[in-house]
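Q: My collaborator sent me two sequences in one message, no labels, and asked for predicted structures for both. Can we handle them in order? The first one she listed is below.
A: Yes, handling them in the order given. First sequence, followed by its structure tokens:
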Amino acid sequence: MQLQLLGSGRKHYVIQRTQRARLTNHYENTFASICVTCPHRETGLCGTLLESEACSQPGWQHFAAARAGEQIVVRNQPYDDVFVLCAGWAFRYFQLSDGRRQILKFLLPGDAFSSAAVFEKSFPFSVKALTEVQLSGFVRSEIRARCAANPDIQSAVASSCIADFRDATELLTSLGQRSAEERIAHLLLHLMPRIAARNVIREQRYPFPLRQQHIADAVGLTPVHVSRVLSLFRDRRLVALSEGTLTVFNLPELERIGTLR
């Protein structure tokens, strides 16, 4: 199935209500049927939401898709939906006026773009597709109404907020106090269990679509410095990154370097 990009021809590929009309019934029905058998449904916020009565209401859930590198959400722009990634990889980031970029988190299937989106219309960051992606939007007003009446949804939103706070705390600590080797090792260790929860992993080989620029922007280093550290890790037989695959040779040593203590 060919992915349909919303907002084609605009400077930013922003998902708005007027753009939803471009999704045909074919796409709506195809994506909705995917939700029923989605292997990531129980790992994130969407599983709890889809078990509520609201999932039967027309217009409660919307679907979209984007190509690799396309902008999905723009910082400080208002949105009526809470977005969840259905397939592919994306990342949320903050970009400075001079073009420098800090990647705040890599988003995997089942991840909400932001738990704070349940309470706020705008995002304090932007979101971009790293690979081809499919995503779902849940109407915020409906989520808030269901939160008031459903303890399970309240708990799911709270858990998502706690996870975001924990990730932000670890990122701040890593950027402020850790060496280049420790930062990169910590990033790999953070991603590995999340990847494993969504894929069958054999012989410690993980699908890993990140390029050195993505890693550099996530750990506050230059791509040259990242390349140097990855080469060192490869020479020491810790990990190797090649052709979209991360191979781990020495997990205990990687954990010794990258685990926050």
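Q: And the one she listed second?
A: Here it is, processed independently of the first:
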Amino acid sequence: MLIALLIVHGLFAVALLGAITHQTAATWLPARKQAGSFGGRFRAVGAAGYTNAIVALYACTFVLGAIIYPEFRMSIRGVLEELEVPAAMGAFELKEHFAVIGLAALPAYWSLWRQPLAEEHGRARKALTSILAFIIWWNFLVGHVVNNFRGFGA
């Protein structure tokens, strides 16, 4: 059952990663004309349209992570200590903290992206979206790498 939850957690994380990446690109580099290239089409999405999906995916990913966390944490800590990789343990500790910071930022994020978009909040939207993108990318990469340590060490 835990493996199935880990897979679903990973699928939600990939969907969240795609949504936040599209929104961040569209926020920082909006397409100014008809997009003809791949990069132009990637940026041409309606950034505000991703907000509810990002909030829902973040919450679902967080809850699934919280469910599988105790067992994963207990099994991975010993492996990382045996392999003597304190950097991986530290990165995972940061992942935990970043996940909670991102969860706490979701109400402000959602409020800033509510329609109609207030022009005076443009910089705050960019900043908070970028912070969330960093947190999501960090957590995805660290979770993936640390899970691989467990796979090789178990």
